[in-house]
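Aim 2, interim progress: modelling of the pyridoxal-5'-phosphate-bound target.
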Amino acid sequence: MANQPENYGLGTLALHAGQSDDSATHACAVPIYATASYNFTSTEHAAELFALKEPGNIYSRLTNPTNDVLEKRLAALDGSVGALCFASGQAAITAAVLTLAHAGENFLASKSLYGGTTTLFSQTFKKFGVEARFFDASKPEQIAALADGNTRCVYLESVGNPKNDVPDFRAIAEAAHSLGVPVIVDNTVTTPMLFRPMEHGADIVVYSTTKFIGGHGVHVGGAVVDCGTFQWAEAPQRWPDFAAPDPAYHGLVFTEALKPLGNLAYIVHMRTHWLRDTGACMSPFAAFLFLLGLETLHLRMPRHCDNALAVAKWLAAHPAVAWVNYPGLPGHPDQANVEKYLPRGAGAIMGFGIKGGKESGRVFIDNVRLAKHLANIGDAKTLVIQPATTTHQQLTDEEQLAAGVTPEFIRLSVGLEDLADILADLDQALRKAVDCAACGCAGGQA
Ligand SMILES: *Cc1c(COP(=O)(O)O)cnc(C)c1O
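Predicted structure of the complex, ligand included:
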């Protein structure tokens, strides 16, 4: 007997979830609904839609049928109640946090984050009166020590990019929940194929779909996923946006009004306020590309992990390499958490340092041929970059070290090429890097 949709595996969900038959055309692929607006059937219909009394499309800044399939599919993959697409990962992260924390309030964030997120939190949010307090993700006890009555959420990454630390999610979630605040996990580098944050206490998940979900480096995008686990109505004074009458919608109480549909107050409020008002919506063409990417995510992630583990082992044994940082290698500082939380694979991102330090790292990067030197991760192709001089350049020295970014750190995002070709490319560039560092020449002209 065929499995029922609610029991489908992740691969089947990645191919089918959220799509129903297009009654107009019976198109098998998800159509790109390239429209800004939607016809109203009557003035009454228009008024009902604007009052949120009837579900339906008004304008593509708020809803679009192509995006809707992607949102439902992402929600299904994370076993959650709803999702919302954004124009980029950064737009999604901004929405996820600022829907909870307002001027005069604060939130707690791991020190090991994507560089753009650290800058967003420490510099840009500060200008609007929202304070980020940074904690060491390996010390969950810091959460209670840093929090106060104005703390609104705890934010971390599933595997820190690029530090490659793997936190104890359960301990962090318990610390957050005992303060009465939700946990947001950026699951970009693991994706639901390797890690489902809700199973380990997260309440909200964010993605840069630009990376593995899209998988081919063709579009920037992001999403927020609401696990539906956090009970806003238990503390209406703390969460008036969700659990008290909303003046922007004639006194509607989101938790009450949405009850028949599920615990959707956070994600619906985000759509009807943050996305409506600030407008960083995803284009339906981008949603189409991310849906296409999702169709093979369950095949790509295991191959990414297999290639990455083999590359990490090979690098660790290479005479030119000083150290390798990959969560899947035995002896990683978070090995116990890796075993507990990432049994399906430790992802494709690693860091390593070459003997000869920063300078030989520069020569290495200038000499890779197959690997692409660019600011991205999670492409089907192998990518390299030196974070200290690029992605994490805006951070202070202290912030860089907390994020695992030493001057010689090279970040590798291992792709899906034939392993032998990846290794051959790394090997020829490594040989040039150490030879040149030793002889002092300008490097790599051979
Ligand atoms: C790239 C990235 C982001 C930012 O996403 P954009 O789509 O580039 O805006 C956020 N978090 C992580 C972990 C990332 O790798």
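The chain has a mean pLDDT of 94. The CA atoms of residues 15 and 238 lie 39 Å apart.
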